[in-house]
Design a protein that fits this description.
heterodimer, A: alpha/beta, Mannitol-specific EII, Chain A, five-stranded mixed β-sheet, 6 helices, 5 strands, B: alpha+beta, Histidine-containing Protein, Chain: A, 4 strands, about 35% helix, disordered C terminus
Chain lengths: ~160, ~110
Amino acid sequence: MRLSDFICFDAVKAQLNSVDRDGVIAELVESLADAGKISCADSVKITQAVIKRENEASTGIGKGMAVPHVKHKLVKEVVATIGCTSQGIDFNSLDKQPVYSVILLLSPADKADKHLRAMENIFRNLRKNDFRSFLRQARTLEQIQEAIFDTDEPNG
Amino acid sequence: MFFGEKAVLSEPVYEIEVEIKNADGLHMRPAMRFVDLAGTFVCDIEVSNDDTYVDGKSIMQMTMLAATRGTRLKVKARGPDAQEAIKALQELVEEKLFDDSAAAGSGGQKA
């Protein structure tokens, strides 16, 4: 599995409008709805589920990254999107530092294995300093796409 | 590599295999519980799934194991409290199924 297999580029937000955690989550979920990956009618419920999950334990894993996610019955396929911002967002991160890059992952309720594989893929790439710093500096969709295609390459 | 050689360094090494038994596998929250518990010990803790070896005290690395239900992970601890660490981690994975009842308590309700 590669990042580009489940990241929906149509839903990527190179410059997030929201300035707080819940706003960012809602913006990214709505962006996936606009891209047709989830039903628009379900986006509020899914947003609430992601926020509820986030309240249980922060997915702000440090180094400016957060990976909010949820498994939900209204989600039909494993899909993710990315949001970047130059304004630090408070995600109550493990390292207490603000977040600049957000990867939102939605998975169907009954696909625990595929969800785990997507998470593994995200975290394996987030360990790479290059990938994190490219995401951090990216200001356009093209730059984000380039970072993902680079990291997806076998030698990337 | 043979562990007997390492005994010269007089650092105890303990290794066990644990089976992931909870339905959703080792997703992020279980991984966090593992990392939190591992972090309470001074010994080094290495966890492996086939040929993926990760630091048992790093949430980013633990989530990378993507261990589904039924997966057997090797947990290796090296350091003065290695034996206690292995015992506690095995209990967390196989008996508590990553559900720390002390933290969950009776107030399972969360807004």
